[in-house]
Specification:
By secondary structure, the protein is an all-alpha fold. The protein is built from three helices and no strands.
Length: 119
Amino acid sequence: MTPHPSSRPRAVRGPLRLALAVTLLLATFGSFAAAFGGMTACTSENSCSVTDCAPCATANDWFMAGWAGQGLLLLAAGALALLAGRRIRPPAIRVTAMWLTALSLTLFAVTTVLAQRSF
């Protein structure tokens, strides 16, 4: 017997909301704040800009790679939300949402550290 359309599996909502919130936050405000702070430190420390010195250009590349990765993870979280709305494999969506959250946090930390260590 299929559940009524208005009943949503509670076990999926929590992890999915967390995945959407974390990826949205890190793809927007987190990426901006990390890049702004990191690039400010790089340009102040090296007395140059992104275009005229290699350390700051490398740092900028790492920040942009992290931002692009977060954007892709945000799209994946949106796709999970669509699948959850259609009730397609809720247990798999729950597990994937938890992995997506962990991956988003890891990607943010790794790319930020790599950018900071490049100058």
